[in-house]
Design goal:
It is a single chain. With 652 residues, this protein is an alpha/beta fold. It has 3 domains: 219 residues, Serine Threonine Protein Phosphatase 5, Tetratricopeptide repeat (Alpha Horseshoe); 141 residues, Rossmann fold, CATH 3.40.50.11380; 165 residues, Rossmann fold (3-Layer(aba) Sandwich), CATH 3.40.50.2000. The chain contains 28 helices and 13 strands. The radius of gyration is 28 Å and the shape is globular.
């Protein structure tokens, strides 16, 4: 017996050494030998769990830890391992139970509190996560990983200054950790310090050239700087390292819309390539109930059910759907919820928080809900669930609002648009979907409940653009420079999150100066806190200038709501025709240009004769653009028509 025990100890030691060297097959052989000798030794099961963990086999690792815990339930280290294994296996409730027990047994071990904090953060239990991280730091003040995790948590909660402080401490403690370095970059980017952010992301890549997180964060920051070509090249590097990460491909596709040389055929080709890369694990076999007149179940899928631009346009259908004819379910993939989330939830008949569902689980939920028409509201924007739609989750699938182009998916039946944004016969060749035009304007804007009163302006003419800075190309600056040359007493006010960065601001002023515009005529403003404060700034503006070739959407609606006329240049593709659609909805086709010269002429004309802000707001509030009830009736008529057509095709 003594010899057997000695052999087992030897096998355990050999297994541990092999595991430390990364020789997993050898470690597995030794641990199997130890297990055969004595399966009652909890360390054998714990080492076995570590081997499974190193192999990426989370569920077998959890089972091995379960065996260790069963033998020694008083050992917190086994409970900690079990919790982490359950976490990685996606069994979050079981993970919480195990890690909570580990904390009870090891109350003074900072690492266990940190692990529990990570789990709470993943489950959106943010207060509990905050408490766990703080406790870990109290126990171990120089615990850089906990400081870094706390910083990431605070960043997600919008506490940007405290997030930055926590991540700066983490960097001081872990100066070679790429995760911490790129985390600080994200915190800086969030407060508009994009140039500093780029430096930190590059520093992370110096430490780990193949860090997927740092590459992705760098690409995002470069896009925010307006460095679209370099952002695209960075995404290409990332795709080589992670060819199966569909979100990275989506991010790259999004960059295409900011380029001045956008081409519809190239855009479709790139989106089809994205679609062809994805092979769904499961495909829905949901039967089609062909009854054309029954109550239809409509589902809306979005990561943006919060105070986000998409929410401004989804309120109307959620509020005004005829509940005798339609049942509405929302599938929320929203990462950070807020009061808007609660308001949208109250407007839906059924609500599912799907952040923690993979495609297979979400597909099962959609099938259980018996959804007839499933509507994507994100396209290829962040945190989309297009891979769900690739599984044919519902008999009819559409995409709407969030993205200005095709998804590229064969399984996406329709893209909701209108005759102005996508004129019949003009853009169909650039879509994998059928274009669906149920209303004169494809959007219906719901103004915020609290809106500042409109106010007058000073004698000096102020042109403005509050659009995302990524849309402000060098060519755009050239055109605006020409305008300011024609209206010599005017100034321009540009407002965007990125303009908190003095480097970006200085470069922008230099571009204007190259067009003959003195720096004092170019006013730059970063993001301000609070929607009311943001809208109130329009009272300093006379004329809003839309960007092209990528128009604004929410910014256009907000300007019009505040009584500020908007000048737009209508382009060839949807992204460059949204402004025309919105202005047509309020009857101001005279503010739509078809050439650069016309754009300048309209802007100069408005500078000479400014419309009443009160009259413009009144016109907007009485227009189809904000008529949620009528828009939803048109949308529902379209849904019903599509459903009947689908049923007829199924009969054929």
């Amino acid at each position: 017996m003594a010899q057997k025990k000695s052999n087992q100890i030897s096998d355990l030691e050999l297994a541990r050494n092999a595991l430390g060297k990364g020789h997993l097959e050898e470690a597995e052989k030794f641990i199997q030998s130890a297990l055969e000798q004595n399966g009652e030794n909890p360390l054998v099961h714990a080492y076995r769990a570590e081997i499974y963990t190193a192999q990426g086999a989370a569920k077998p690792a959890a089972e091995a830890y379960e065996a260790a815990v069963a033998l020694r339930p008083d050992q917190g280290v086994f409970w900690n391992g079990l919790g982490l294994a359950r976490f990685h296996a996606g069994e979050l409730e079981a993970a919480v139970s195990a890690l909570t027990r580990a904390v009870e047994l090891l109350p003074d071990q900072a690492e266990v509190h940190n692990n529990l904090g990570n789990l709470h953060r993943e489950m959106a239990a943010f207060d509990a996560a905050h408490e766990s991280y703080r406790r870990a730091i109290e126990l171990k003040p120089d615990y850089g990983e906990a400081h870094g995790n706390l910083g990431v948590l605070l960043l997600g909660l919008g506490d940007l200054e405290e997030a930055r402080k926590a991540l700066e401490i983490a960097v001081g403690l872990r100066p070679h950790d790429p995760t911490v370095l790129t985390g600080l970059g994200c915190a800086l980017a969030a407060v508009g310090a994009i140039t500093e952010a780029v430096c930190w992301h590059r520093r992370a890549l110096d430490e780990s050239p193949e860090s997927l997180g740092a590459l992705n964060n760098l690409a995002i920051a470069l896009k925010d700087q307006g460095q679209i070509d370099e952002a695209t090249e960075t995404y290409d590097r990332l795709i080589k390292l992670a060819p199966d990460d569909m979100s990275v491909h989506s991010n790259r596709l999004m960059c295409m819309h900011y380029r001045e040389d956008r081409d519809g055929k190239k855009i479709l080709s790139a989106h089809r390539q994205w679609s062809n890369r994805f092979k769904p694990k499961a495909v829905s076999k949901t039967p089609l109930d062909r009854n054309p007149d029954r109550k239809l179940k409509v589902g809306y899928v979005s990561p943006d059910f919060w105070t986000h631009s998409v929410a401004n346009f989804v309120v109307a259908p959620l509020r005004h759907h005829d509940r005798n004819q339609f049942h509405v379910t929302c599938y929320s993939d929203t990462q950070s919820t807020d009061t808007t989330t609660g308001q949208l939830r109250a407007l839906s008949d059924q609500w599912h928080d799907v952040r923690f569902m993979d495609d297979e689980a979400l597909l099962a939920q959609v099938q259980a809900d018996e959804i007839d028409i499933l509507v994507d509201l994100a396209g290829h924007t962040a945190d989309n669930r297009l891979t769900l739609f690739a599984c044919r989750a519902a008999p009819v699938q559409m995409t709407w609002i969030g993205y200005p182009a095709t998804t590229g998916l064969e399984q996406m039946d329709m893209r909701l648009t209108d005759e102005i944004a996508d004129p019949s016969g003009a853009t169909e060749p650039f879509h994998s979907e059928t274009l669906f035009r149920p209303a004169p304007c494809f959007l219906c804007y719901t103004p915020p409940e609290e809106t500042p009163a409109v106010g007058g302006c000073a004698d000096e003419i102020t042109f403005a653009s509050f659009n995302n800075f990524s849309k402000v190309t060098d060519e755009m600056v050239r055109v605006w420079g020409r305008l300011l040359g024609q209206v010599p007493d005017a100034q321009i006010l540009l407002k965007s999150r990125q303009l908190a960065d003095p480097v970006i601001g200085e470069r922008l002023k230099q571009l204007f100066e190259g067009e003959g515009v003195s720096p004092e005529r170019v006013k730059l403003m970063p993001r301000v806190t609070g929607r009311e404060n943001h809208l109130a700034i329009y009272n300093e503006v006379d004329i809003a200038l839309d960007t092209f070739p990528y128009n604004g959407t929410t910014t256009t609606c907000e300007a019009l709501l505040m009584g500020v006329p908007v000048v737009t240049l209508s382009g060839a593709l949807h992204a460059g025709r949204v402004g025309a659609s919105l202005l047509s909805a309020i009857g101001r086709e005279d503010w739509i240009a078809d050439s650069e010269e016309a754009y300048l002429k309209i802007a100069m004309g408005l500078a000479e004769s400014r419309p009443s802000k009160e009259d413009l707001r009144r016109a907007v509030l009485e227009s189809p653009l904000t008529d949620g009830r009528n828009f939803t009736r048109q949308l529902e008529t379209g849904y019903r028509s599509v459903w009947r057509e689908r049923g007829e095709k199924a009969v054929d």
